[in-house]
Amino acid sequence: MLKYANPTNFLALAARLIPWLAAATALLLIVGLYLTFFVAPDDYQQGASVKIMYLHVPSAWLSMMCYIIMTSAALGTIVWRHPLADAAQKAAAPLGAAFTLLCLVSGSLWGKPMWGTWWVWDARLTSVLVLFLIYLGLVGLWRTIEEPAQAARAAAILTLVGVVNIPIIKFSVDWWNTLHQPASVFRVGGPAISGSMLWTLLIMALGFSFLFLTLHLMAIRNEILRRRLRRLSIDAAHAEEKAEATA
Amino acid sequence: MMQSALSALFWRELQLARSVGGGGAMGVVFFLILVSLTPFAIGPDLNLLSRIGPAILWIAALLATLLGLDRLFQSDADDGSLDLLLTAATPLELVVLVKCVAHWIATALPLIVASPLLGLTLAMEPASLAGISLSLLAGTPALTMLGAIGAALTAGLRRGGLLMAVLILPLTTPVLIFGVSAATAASGGTVPFHIPILILCGLSLAAVAGAPFAAAAALRSRDA
């Protein structure tokens, strides 16, 4: 396992894994979408608009899982100062922002026919919006600090401070009386939805997780290459300077 | 020795805040402008103003506190005294805490004193005026401490001021929620006053306990 902490070994591993992961993502999403549109039944109250769930719930899970992965990477940055952890952190922030935005937009589209409004300021929606803003702030921080190692440490501190929001999102539907419904899959006493709907949801969630994994690995690979390019161009500038000085 | 170093730092910070461009008095003026602009935006309906008065005062206090905070470490980073503080024997966490306390006294305390007067112009009731002062007293330490993390993260960056607000404002949501609910609970309502005010005190205490470590780590990370 430690062998792959070396960026070169990691690049080799990523090059081998990415095609398989991409294929698995495509397969899972195709099966999941087929189940969504042709197998999973319409809800007796909500009609066909219940199908938004198969997009909304996985993206909501991923928006939080991405933050947890980013937090682990932030610990790696703070404790070991490992460049791979820096790259994993940096790669996760825009992905997390994208999944959170997907969650907010799909939830809004689902809310209009069901609740009669695009948006309510209840605890679940507000805390997810705060998560989105934290992701955007992190992307802004990464772009403002030029030195990559310094940017990584600053982003890691902000990530660790912002992690208080994750339990608030998870438990907001239990702590406050929200319009958003409470958890119906991971709960005491087993899932409250059944049969083909549950299977479709789980396959879509797996597909989204593989999608995230694929994109995250690709983004980490790009970040490692970007850092190497930066180093090479700095070295080249130094060499040029030295050549001019001697000439 | 450490005591005298910290108290020297404390008085230095207060004197800097009082001097021209220090931002202490500017914060209050900014607060005054924000509050007095709102009635122009929403119209001079006194019933409406007295209902949303606590929210206006809290938003204005939030912005006035945070926008003044970007100078907390920036001027020290510019003139090099931050490097001296970093290499000093005094723990950096205590340095951060002392700077925050001085900053709070110089900028937030005047806001709290001024808030009942401004509340009068918004036609707020006497109980509500007391509520807004108490809720600001309980909540602004959390704002200052959270802002210190942002100020430390963005110290020495070009265009750090706006970035700092973007980083920290989302994290201040709980303080704003309980601050406004305490201020409105003071003038009647279903929630008893002591519940939001105790939560607000808890948020401030947690921020005072935790934020100095995060801000100190951020300051150290600048050139480690």
UniProtKB/TrEMBL annotation, chain A:
The chain crosses the membrane at residues 20-40, 60-80, 92-111, 123-142, 154-176, 196-220. It is found in: Cell inner membrane; Membrane. One of its GO terms (biological process) is cytochrome complex assembly. Residues 2-180 form the Cytochrome c assembly protein domain. Keywords: Cell inner membrane, Cell membrane, Cytochrome c-type biogenesis, Membrane, Transmembrane, Transmembrane helix, Transport. Signal peptide: none annotated. It is a multi-pass membrane protein. GO terms for molecular function: heme binding; heme transmembrane transporter activity. InterPro entries: Cyt_c_assembly, Cyt_c_biogenesis_CcmC, Cyt_c_biogenesis_CcsA/CcmC. One of its GO terms (cellular component) is plasma membrane. Belongs to the CcmC/CycZ/HelC family. Required for the export of heme to the periplasm for the biogenesis of c-type cytochromes. This is Heme exporter protein C. It comes from Rhodoblastus sphagnicola.
